[in-house]
Design goal:
Blueprint (H helix, E strand, L loop, with lengths): L5 H14 L4 H8 L3 H9 L6 H11 L12 H16 L14 H16 L3 H21 L5 H21 L3 H17 L3 H18 L2 H14 L6 H20 L3 H18 L3 E3 L2 E3 L1 H14 L5 H10 L8 H17 L3 H14 L1 H6 L1 H13 L4 H11 L3
Helix pairs in contact: 1-3, 2-3, 2-4, 5-7, 6-7, 6-8, 7-8, 8-9, 8-10, 9-10, 10-11, 10-12, 11-12, 12-13, 12-14, 13-14, 14-15, 14-16, 15-16, 16-17, 16-19, 17-19, 19-20
């Protein structure tokens, strides 16, 4: 069953194409889809097959779920990639020869997959992550002494992209193994910044296990071990760890510790001054504001006013990574549902989907809020049912 009509899909393709200043001929060339097919799809005269839809989405730099509601090709690609990803890291400590790509080519590919992670484009990650991870492991084993830290950071970034799909799709054991790989690479290169990045991601293990108290201890140890904040990069590394510590403290109900770490994160955000991506983690004043929302929601319904105040005073700019913006609106929707603001909660969920559809679709809180809205509220029933079908909350 298709939720969208061919006309609706065509309108979305055309809108994305125009936003990227592409002609139909340009889109056809970039996607390797015939010009006549592109024209027919945009007119609504043809429903694109999965292969055509994925080709158009890749050329437009969006996830296919932005073009067709309920599209499951991303899930299929992710689940197909996971066994190869698991096999690729089984013997990560065993040298297996040189990578198939040179350092420069490998670096380009690693930066690309990191951008896909920040943009929550999980299907695109899944397509090439097993081979890229194998090459990154091989590079660590064969890199010259002067390249060891570069190689380790590449492997950390690649494993982190693999972890993004493993964790989001509930493969927590595989996620934990990928995080162990990150820590092995960072420790082997004795790179404190890579170690800080691995410690940041390791928090997912504690979130999944609901082991908030020990997770907070692990993050505080990582903060103490991080390099002195003498540059923008080192300050961002410390600030990111404080943001993470604030959230896990909130999940554990420790409001005082959450506020202390949030205050420290603000300090380092001010020191960094400019929002950016530092060793794979978005950090700066805007990211700290998003974590203010995260902390308020983590502390629970008694802190709903604090969460709503953040949203009243500030909204995330479009320049922030898509996954981070989506997370903000999902958490805001949760607070709005607690405050009995169903219409606002639904609008926040729609904003989350617009920012990062696949991230929203796989987020348990987004599904939970959607289910609650359908059970207890009658706001815009037709649109809400459509959304619930898309997110899998029916």
């Amino acid at each position: 069953m298709f939720v969208d009509s061919p006309r609706e899909v065509g309108e979305r393709v055309a809108a994305c194409r125009r936003a990227r200043r592409l002609t139909q001929t340009g889109l056809a060339a970039a996607s390797h889809v015939s010009y006549s097919t592109v024209r027919a799809v945009e007119r609504g005269a043809r429903r694109p097959s999965d292969d055509v839809l994925e080709a158009l989405a890749a050329a437009l730099g969006v996830d296919a779920t932005q073009l067709r509601t309920g599209y499951v090709g991303t899930e299929r690609r992710v689940h197909q990639a996971l066994p190869a990803l698991s096999a690729g890291i089984a013997g990560y400590d065993v040298p297996q020869g040189p990578p198939t790509r040179g350092p420069a080519e490998l670096g380009v590919a690693v930066r690309e997959v990191a951008d896909w992670r920040l943009g929550a484009q999980y299907g695109r990650i899944a397509t090439g992550i097993p081979d890229l991870l194998c090459d990154s492991i091989r590079y660590v084993h064969t890199a010259r002494a002067a390249e060891q830290r570069t190689a380790a950071r590449m492997l950390v970034a690649t494993a982190r992209a693999g972890d993004a799909i493993a964790f989001k799709y509930g493969e927590y054991d595989l996620s934990a193994r990928l995080i162990d790989l990150m820590r092995w690479a960072a420790d082997g290169a004795a790179d404190p910044l890579a170690q800080a990045a691995a410690a940041y991601v390791r928090t997912e293990v504690f979130f999944a296990a609901r082991a908030h108290a020990v997770g907070l201890v692990a993050l505080e140890q990582a903060i103490h071990a991080a390099p002195a904040p003498s540059s923008r990069l080192t300050a961002a590394a410390r600030g990111a760890l404080h943001m993470r510590a604030a959230v896990i403290a909130g999940r554990g109900g420790d409001a005082d510790a959450a506020d202390t770490h949030l205050t420290d994160a603000r300090h380092f955000g001010d020191q960094v001054a400019r929002e950016g991506v530092y060793l794979g983690t978005a950090f700066g004043p805007d990211s700290v504001r998003i974590h203010e929302m995260s902390v308020a929601v983590s502390l629970g319904p008694n802190h709903v006013d604090r969460a709503l105040r953040v949203a009243t005073e500030w909204t995330p700019p479009a320049t922030l990574p898509a996954e981070r913006r989506s997370g903000f609106y999902i958490e805001l929707a949760r607070a709005q549902e607690w405050a009995n603001l169903p219409g606002d909660a639904f609008e926040s969920l729609r904003a989350a989907r617009a920012a990062a559809p696949q991230h929203t679709r796989e987020h348990p809180w987004a599904r939970e809020v959607t289910s609650g809205l359908r059970r207890f509220h009658r706001a815009d029933a037709e649109s809400l049912s459509h959304f619930a079908h898309w997110i899998g909350a029916v």
